[in-house]
Amino acid sequence: MSTSPPPSSPPAGTHAVVYGGSTAGLIAAGVLSRHFERVTLVERDRLEDGPLLRKGVPQGAHVHGLLTPGMNVLGEVFPGFREELKAAGSHFIDFTGEHAWFMGGFWRPRIPCGLHFYAQSRPLLEWVIRQRLQALPNVRVLDGREVTGFLTSSDKARVTGVHLRVPGGGQEETLEAGLVVDASGRGSRTPQWLEALGYPRVEETHIQVDVVYASRLFRRPPGLVADWKMMSIGPKLPTERRMAVLAPIENDQMLLLLAGWHGMQPPLDDAGYIGFTRELIQPHIHEVMKHAEPLGPINVYRYSHNQRRHYERMPRFPEGLAPVGDAFCSFNPIYGQGMTTGALQARALGECLRQGLGGLAARYRQQVGQLLESPWSMATSGDLRFPEVAGQRPPAFGLMSWYTDRIQSLVGHDEEALRTFVRVMQMVESPTTLFSPRMVLKALTSKPTTAALERKPEPPFAPATAKVQAA
User: pLDDT digit string (tens) for 234-246?
Assistant: First the structure.
């Protein structure tokens, strides 16, 4: 294991503070360890020595997607990270070759694409990152502390540190720092604290989505011999409003995520939860889950709205402060962009630090504002298709929705189009790739073949095994 980060020559500063032990916060602390002599990560929760759920991550019990660019950042910050994550129990699943994926009315072709879904629990992912971070000699993790405000220069033009205390009360402490990174999540108090310091309130965009997730751990059923490692059954928006993802995780367990939009909430009793899978547009997940043994409670997470704070638009902003992750922009988790976008923001912060601390806040805010444009558009364009969702539709939104449906149909039978679509979905290529002349021509003229219409996964159990399971 590599424990010493390559030194920044010369260091950008003496001390940096990151508050919030989210995935984005952990990666940001790793990035900053290359640019500062010392880094302190402050986390409100007590951090256990193991992959355990914690109160500060209410969505931690659900399926999480780490896309290729996010894994690339982790490999840059922590060399050898992929191998360590796999050794800890993660499953590296080819996104089209080993993933049975129903979307837009079709089972997608099962062809290798070379891009992976990294399947493990959120606690395991964070624990492996945290172990690497804590092994760095210039990083200190201070858990069981909450940040209550900023230290500033006398003219309030620069954030110079943070006030902190034990949650619930106790004596207040201070930490001085040349850079403070807010990784405290979508409930970040930075907007209020800046306003109290005399700065304008940051402009925010909210797009209501009303999605409810319900996830549960299961033991992998004995006799399961599926020709896939992961299965997703997605809706055809906006008319269908149920979805399910079944993914393998560590310890020979399977994590089932059920979700519904706008009143289509998965039931939270045992029979109703499995019954929800019977109502999906395809029966395959139900065929597996009716034989599976639950290993814990049904965990619920309600996501009300996409939230983007436009820090890049603020005319005045203090030096020495940088929001990352959900503190800057929080997406509907259904699109799996959150952790990867947070990692890309951490990388952007490191790139901006190469020019020093002077003018860092402006450089970073503008770079992240540009970085967020594509993932924000991709997420919100799907949510805005529901008539219940309030929000300004962009020009030609109806035409774009129609073209999206054509693309969804195309990738159900065209292998080249599917590979391109996955590269866009994985944030490896720009969404503009889907509008190349070749793709437009295919989308407008190509029709699904008989083979595509009849494609489906093999039964998950051999007939004899299924009879034993049913008995």
Answer: 988 888 889 999 9
